[in-house]
Amino acid sequence: MSKTLLSYIWKFSARQQIILLILTVVSFPILYMSLELPKQIINEAIGSSAFPVDYYGFSLGQFEYMGVLCAAFLLTVIVSGLLKMRTNIFKGTVSERLLRRFRYQLISRILRFPLPHFRRTSQGALISMVTAETEPMGSMMMMRYRVRCLPQARC
């Protein structure tokens, strides 16, 4: 097993971490556009009096220009939301796989104990030991993945 959590994560999920980084970097320009378009709608489509506007070779009046900007804003909000949803789902999948791999490795290490140890220790104690060791790592990895939990559920 790796000595640090970061090296463990990088060893078993480097490819997925790079994909997450790419998804995040791709979402930045779209997020910027979704923040910039409302300013353009207010300042140029509503507040300006210089119409018709030449927009990519088309001559647009105030109403048409505002419609184009609003449609572009709606499109960027939808695309940004879909990218964010895909990124969060992928983060959750990666963290669940890492946590499952970590649990399996702990169980395989427990099975290396001498046989008399298993006669003295109950199965419940072994399972609670694996759960106690993996819970902090799982909650740290899943921290940004969770959307919301029910009040009575342990998240």
Entry keywords:
155 residues; ABC transporter transmembrane region fold; mainly alpha; disordered C terminus; rod-shaped; 2 strands
CATH architecture: Up-down Bundle
Count the domains: 1
Strand fraction: under 5%
Task: Give the CA-CA distance, first to last residue.
Answer: 27 Å
Note the total helix count.
4
Judged by helices, strands and strand pairing, the structural class is mainly alpha
CATH class: Mainly Alpha
Explain what you see.
With 155 residues, the protein is mainly α. It has one domain: ABC transporter transmembrane region fold, CATH 1.20.1560.10. The protein has helices spanning 5-46, 62-110, 115-120, 123-142; strands at 53-55, 58-60. It has a two-stranded antiparallel sheet with strand order 1-2. The longest helix is centred in the middle third of the chain and has 49 residues, at 62-110.
Strand-helix topology:
Layout: H1 5-46, E1 53-55, E2 58-60, H2 62-110, H3 115-120, H4 123-142
Antiparallel strand pairs: 1-2
Helix pairs in contact: 1-2, 2-4
Compact description:
With 155 residues, this protein is mainly α. It contains four helices and two strands; from the N terminus they run αββααα. β1 and β2 form a beta hairpin.
